[in-house]
Each structure stands twice: as C-alpha cells, then as structure tokens.
Amino acid sequence: QELRPKSLDIKQEELGDMVEKEMASTSEAIEDAVRRIEEMMSQARNESSGVKLEVNERILNSCTDLMKAIRLLVMTSTNLQKEIVESGRGAATTQEFYAKNSRWTEGLISASKAVGWGATQLVESADRVVLHTGKYEELIVCSHEIAASTAQLVAASKVKAEKNSRNLGRLQECSRNVNEMAANVVASTKSGQEQIEEKDTMDFSGMSLIKLKKEEMETQVKVLELEKRLEGERVRLGELRKQHYALAGPCDVAEDDGDAKPAPTPRRGILKKPPLAQKP
C-alpha cells in the first residue's frame, strides 16, 4: 500500500469527485471557447475586409467545428465513464470504485485536463492570429496537441470499457471526427497563411554581376545560420520530450490491464543533422 503512487496529495476518496469536476470544467472551457470564437468572428467582420476577412472567417469556422467535435467527445466520454463505473463497481460505491482503480482514475483526470487546456490554447492562438499579433504555426501546433489529447482520453476510457460497448464505439467515432476537424484547422491555417503573407518576387534581373555575387554570399551565410539554429532547436526538442516522458513515467491509464502500453520513447531521428544546402 505504501508503494502505491500517490495522487498529488489528493485523498483517494476524493478521486471520484475530481473526475466529475474535471469533466465539468472541461465542458465549461469548451463552451467558453465557442463563445469567444463567435465574438472573434463578429469582431473580424467589423474590422477586416477582402482577403483578410475571408481568411479569418475560414480559420474561425474550422475552429468552431473543432470545438463542437470536442464538446461531443467529452459528452460521450462522460456517458462511457458512467457505464464503466456502473458495470464494474458491483456493491461498491462510485467513490470506492474510483479509489480502487486510482491509477486509471488519475489517467482519466489527466486526459480530461489535457483536452480542456488544448481547447483554451487553440482559442487564444486564433485570437492572436486574427489580431495579427500571433503566428499561424501556433494554431497548427495547438491542433496537433488537441488530436493527441483526444487519443489520450479515448485510451484512458478504452482500458476499462467493454469491447462491445456502444458508448465506446461512439467515443471512437467522436475521436475520428475530432482528428478530422483538427486537420481542417491545419489546412485552413496553412492556406490562409499563404494568402496573407507577401511573397518576394525574386526578380534579380536588374542586378549586376557583383551585386548578384554579394547577394549570393549573404544568402549562403543566412542558410548556414538557420541550419545551425534548426539543429540546435531539434536537439532542444528531443531533450524536452525525453524529460516529458521521464516525468510522465509509464502509461497512467491502466492499473492491472495488460492492454495498456508504456509511453513510447522519443525517436532518435529528431536529433539527426539536416543535410547542408548545395551550392548553386
């Protein structure tokens, strides 16, 4: 009993309440995200026009569709959890069931938090993009994070669910829908970025031979600097992921289940040095 992992100073009898509170908090975060996106849409229509308005509307519409998909996912996950508790607790109370399966419960809480956090971050990133104070890449990263958090929530629920459960089938369908909507956010963001950002004409026709040679050397210097910086960032990302997995430990969604697998170690390929640019 002493060797069992503790849940961050939370008494096990409180775990059941934590699950319900976290799922309710996640639902509230998503509802708030939908309202904020609607406000941003109204503001964008008042303050922008032409290509900017078209891009903003497309991005915000895709974000709205993603939020609706996440909301349905959370509702379905809540129904599945109730089904799992009712079928597995026997004569025990709900609180006793969650306490008995504390590792699974902690994984469920963690997954729910991740989904709510991802939705909040996506809205904040969309707000900055619409106001032209943020980066389009932030939206793309947030979309990937939401897809990953969704997979975590489905895995946490699947561990204890019956294989022929209808609610589990619905949850998996909701997960696929979330992934599809997240991909739509990425696609609309990339296309919008291409429309908004100004492209260099690459017109060198008026340059002399000396000027061309100077520009060529300066560009080579920039390429080498960027390659060195990229290599450093790849190493940093690899170390961050290693530390993430070290802190997270093995998969927390299972207690005595053989189906759950430990979190994968980061690929060594991320530390690979990119090829040097070829001379023209």
Question: Major β-sheet, in short?
Answer: none
Mean pLDDT metric: 79
Envelope shape: elongated
Strand content: under 5%
Assembly context of the chains: single chain
Give the helix tally.
7
Structural class: mainly alpha
H/E series: HHHHHHH
Summarize the structure.
This is HIP1R protein. With 280 residues, this protein is mainly α.
Task: List strands and helices in order, with pairings.
Layout: H1 15-47, H2 50-88, H3 94-100, H4 102-130, H5 136-158, H6 166-196, H7 209-248
Describe it for me?
The protein is mainly alpha-helical and 280 residues long. The protein has a domain at 14-198. Helices cover 72% and strands 0% of the residues. It has helices at 15-47, 50-88, 94-100, 102-130, 136-158, 166-196, 209-248. The radius of gyration is 24 Å and the shape is elongated. It starts with 14 loop residues before the first helix and ends in a 32-residue tail after the last helix. The relative contact order is 0.11. Residues 253-263 have low confidence and may be disordered. One of its GO terms (molecular function) is clathrin adaptor activity. One of its GO terms (cellular component) is clathrin-coated vesicle. Residues 207-243 form a coiled coil.
